[in-house]
Amino acid sequence: MPRYPYECKNCGEWLIVFHGFEETFSDCEKCGHKDTMKKLLSTPLAINKKSIDISDKKLFCKKVGELTREYIEENRKVLKEQKKEAKKKSYESS
What we know:
Layout: E1 3-8, E2 14-18, E3 37-39, H1 54-61, H2 64-88
Antiparallel strand pairs: 1-2, 1-3
């Protein structure tokens, strides 16, 4: 999901918001004013592959699907561990 920089016209709060291309962000979370957030111009990320270490080039040789699968598998292991820890804890019933 793309990230966009925003600034509040009222209080000057600056933040980066992740949202879809056609979505907008308009209300300031800091001062609470409605329709005060203005999308700022941002510089696109350009990666110069020539200046990257050989160890980092491995990432650019893989397809997006491969990287996504690896990321999912790594996080699946973390999630299993978190589930085990959560089951060990006792919770009060409400």
